[in-house]
Amino acid sequence: MEFRKKRRELVGLEITPLVDVVFLLLIFFMLSTTFVVSPGIRIDLPRARSEPVRQEVKDLRVKIDAEGTLYLGDRRASPEDLEARFAEVARANPDTLVIIEADEQTRHRHVVDVMDRAKTAGLHRLAIATRPKR
Fold it and tell me: Which domain, by its residues, includes 118?
């Protein structure tokens, strides 16, 4: 008796739909990911017919010598004088820049004290002056 040989079919996994899904996910993530924050909508503003209002913003210079003595401009000042001047300037223009020129040998606590007094008075723009690098 002769047996018929069964023809075996090759069983395979169809990966075409899987590849399609992977490419769709890849495209989705590429399109939904933000790489660079766009600055917004670009618009052309109309021209003004009047002169722009110019607000003078002067800076306030505070100097601290090596011993911690405070100077407002070129005049010696006590911490209370400094506080009063900061409050006066903050009422007039809270955007005033306070520039602290501290001696290299002064203690940090003197600089921090001036910064705290300026912040308490409402002056939030602070800068510490340095010499340019040579």
Answer: 59-128
